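From the shared-data thread, chain only:
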Amino acid sequence: MADAEQIAVVTGASSGIGKEAAKALAARGWHVIALGRDPGRTAAAEAEIRAANQGGRVDIIQADLSLMADAARAAREIAALTDRVHVLINNAGGMARARVITPEGLEENFAGNHLGPFLLTDRLLPLIRRAAVDAPRGSVRIVNTSSDGGEMIPGLLWSDLQLLERFTPGHAYCQAKLANVLFARGLAQRLAADGVVAHAVHPGTIDSNFITHAEESTQAHIRTLKAMSSEEGAQALVWLATAEEPGQTTGGYFHQCKPMPPNPFAEVDANVDRLWSESEKLVAQTGA
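Structure, as tokens:
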């Protein structure tokens, strides 16, 4: 896949693997549009991404994807910057330590990990489809950063999708990460005719600030695990976005640049379609 005049949108680009993926693409000369939530980290990341740039353009958008209004605004700002998107890396996400309801009435963890990316992606589909018209088939891609947490539950709890009644931080994270995988499969099915590829990825344990909002016990456990650097973890994102091999299939689930079987729940088309429908309803309730 040629890197010249390519446009990538990377969310969660203010730190960790999102920032390193944005830097890697900028270093290849891509036009990178990087999204971050925290003002201070986003400003610092902007300087790093621009420093990595080798002739490509860099734009920065601050947005909190747990707010549907922010996700919709970010999509409008992206559309004002470019008329096409060749790669969308839905990397923004995190772990919660408690149930928090956003001003829009959504559970913050599920909103930030799934619903915001769902809305942002939906609003960017015209730009993604436009890029695919003139690009080699399979070169325009959407990458969802998931986690093996999505493999640790039997499936989504349809009766309480946001876990409003039975919230626990661990279950909420697993629920959202499984949703990322189903969402990638739903995109793959809906965009196959356009030649657009969509995959999900479990990046592994990363030494970054990703866990800083999690419960102390969760943070302590994760710190006992062998962790990759953010630079190492970002390699899978960049590979999925640019390498030839992942462009030959769609709807996959990857770890360390190798395909893996997902949670069997994600392989049932009825579950994929139901999550899409339920996500549309929850987003619509916010007025976004």
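Strands lie at 7-10, 31-36, 58-62, 87-90, 141-145, 197-201, 253-255, 258-259.
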